[in-house]
Design goal:
Length: 171
């Protein structure tokens, strides 16, 4: 069941960031209309195109309404952010501009699964997280990193291809 009330945590996470707040409120409404109670689904027929036009075309953020997003997602700047609809994003994550999170085309034309981000993952600008990878809780993805393998919890990764440079303190 879609949880429209998550917008309260999103609102707080995007404090001082009107664009992030707007994107997340519009996303939560769209996600609720698409994945919520059956009686709300007719709203999706009308609201879906409005959401895509406003968020994707005007604001430059591709965050499909089917994407499973935890509470308190923070979007900083957002321009050029592309998230595949199969991606799962945990609670308290932070996504910056020019980031791509999605699947990849395999030999034969099929597509891989999409990434799963744990809780409190911090994704730097211009990063790419692609394929069936898992990013552990509290991981930090450095700006410009290319993630094609799993990232353990608390790891700080940088580079192309990404490599672990250190671990954050756990407490």
């Amino acid at each position: 069941m879609a949880k429209i009330w998550n917008f309260f945590q999103d609102w707080k996470a995007n404090w001082g960031n009107p664009k992030g707040r707007l994107v997340m409120v519009l996303f939560r409404i769209a996600h609720w209309a698409r994945c919520g109670p059956g009686w709300a689904r007719p709203l999706a027929v009308v609201y879906g195109p409005v959401y895509r036009l406003g968020v994707e075309w005007l604001l430059g953020v591709e965050l499909p309404w089917k994407t499973r997003v935890g509470r308190g997602l923070r979007i900083d700047h957002g321009m050029g952010l592309v998230v595949n609809d199969g991606t799962r994003i945990g609670d308290g994550c932070f996504l910056r501009h020019s980031t791509t999170i999605g699947n990849k085309q395999l030999e034969g034309g099929a597509y891989s699964a999409s990434p799963v981000l744990g809780n409190r993952v911090d994704v730097g600008a211009n990063s790419v997280i692609i394929g069936p990878v898992r990013v552990g809780d509290d991981a930090v993805i450095g700006a410009g990193a290319v993630i094609v393998k799993d990232v353990p919890p608390y790891a700080v990764v940088v580079g192309n291809p990404a490599r672990i440079v250190r671990y954050r303190k756990t407490g």
